[in-house]
Structure formats: structure tokens, C-alpha cells
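REQUEST FORM: STRUCTURE PREDICTION
Request ID: SP-0412
Submitted by: Lab K.M.
Chain count: 1
Length (residues): 292
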Amino acid sequence: MHTTIDSATEVVSGIRFPEGNRWHDGRLWYSDMHTGEVFSIDPAVVDPRSDVAPRLETTIDGQSSGLGWLSDGRLVVSAMNSRTIQAVGPDGTNAVFADLSSVESSLLNDLVVDEATGRTYVGAFGYDLYGGEEPRPGPLYVVDPDGSSRLAADGLVFPNSANVLPGTRTLVVSETWGGRLTAFDIEADGSLSGRREWAALPDGVTPDGSTVDAEGAIWVCSVDTGEFLRVVEGGEVTDRIDAPGLCAIDCALGGEDGRTLYLATADSYDPETTARTRAGRISAVRVTVPGP
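STATUS: Completed
RESULT:
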């Protein structure tokens, strides 16, 4: 499949910078990073003629990014500026689940919860992106179910989204400015070993958000080149959705049969720009291979 986002169906618009797209409990969840708000919506009831709106689940102080669910069902959100992971209660209030501020000075990034163990893996920028600082490699942390954290890997070139491949103990991480997907073996204690290149991406591709399908292929978003790519181990691109002139930020597989791919885009990743334009949106296309 090679198509453009023009063929997609709009689900949500008026967002500043949609991140952390997840399908959970019959709803699409996402962060509006530049507002710190986290929303969910049932896309099945979205209709231009209705007044159905996304449901505000919580608001994070500062920027919000990755979303996940702990073994006890609590939603967790990476609170980028405070360098914490916040757990959200039934009433939408949030409290610190893990505090990485004493070990990490750069903004936290996306996260993934390993459903098999309840452990959370979260990356950090590694440098001050918004302040124009020279890029430096960044870390990946593992957070245990009790909220304690430790370094899992270092030297990653802007670690971003991550996925546990279905039926395996393999974690695959996007290195945004490295233009590659990097794999690790997940050990019994949550530590990572066997670091290796899972896929070198085409020239210019800057992998941001991603989602894995039932065949173990990864849909990855290229924020700089405005495209969504389905990649298999080794780097072959099997499918492509172009979003010319846009930042391709994140994606998630969901819907009733798992074959709807939700595509998050914006016109910029600069907070000052998105405050003016609010051009972010989430759209949907149908794909062949469902989510796991």
C-alpha cells in the first residue's frame, strides 16, 4: 500500500501536538503534548453532525507524552518537564508514580508498559531540544511496578517510542535523529541486553511514534519527512502513507477488528507555533494487518 493522508478519515482536529496514541478498552487515547491534556474518544460514534467530543481524562503540569496502563489498571503518563511518570486516578487526578528528576535533567519522552511484567520503559531527550542545545545521546530507563527506576540503556540518539514485539521478549526503540529502530532482549529482571539494529530506515526518515502489528512489523512515523512507514525487521518498507507538509507524529492500531490505523499529525513541533495554529489532528485509514 502506498497512499496519502488525503484518503484518511478525520477523527479529531484542533489539537496542538497529538502524541501517545494508544488503543485501550475500546477507545482511542492521546496526549495533546503542548497543553498537557490527555483525552480519549470512541471513534465509532464520531460523526460531523453530532456534538460528540473527546473526553478529558487528566491534565499534566507541563507537557504530556507517552501513555500506558499498569497491571492494576491505572493510566500512567510521562510528564516531560517534571521528569516524572504520573499515575491517574479514577477521578482524573494524577500523582507521581515514578520520579526521575534526580537522575535526569532533560525532558522525558515517550513510554511503553510491558504488559507481561508491568514494567515501564521511558526515554529522555538527552539535551535541551527547545533551547537549541547541541544534540547529545539520551538514556532509556526502566521503572519497576513499585515506581523505582534504573538506567536500562544509554547512548541512544533521541530515544522515542518503543514496542514489545508480540510473542517475544524483544523491545524495539525508535532513535529519532539516528534514523533507525534498535532492538533489545528483555531480561527476567527488566534489564536490557543484546542491543542491535532492528531496522535502518531510509535516508532522512526520523522515527517518532510507532505501533506494532500482529505480524511483528512496526508502523513508524517520520516527523521530519511527513510519512508513516510499515517496516519489517531488516528495514524493508512494505507500506507507506505520505503526509506532505506535515509532521507525522504518532500512530496506533485499533478499532473493532484492530485494522484501523490512527495517524497523528501537526504542522510543527514548536510549541509557539502550535499555540497559534492548532492544526494538529488524528485521522484513520484501514490496513491489512491488525494490531496484536
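NOTES: Residues 254 and 260 are 5 Å apart (CA to CA).
Reviewed by: T.R.
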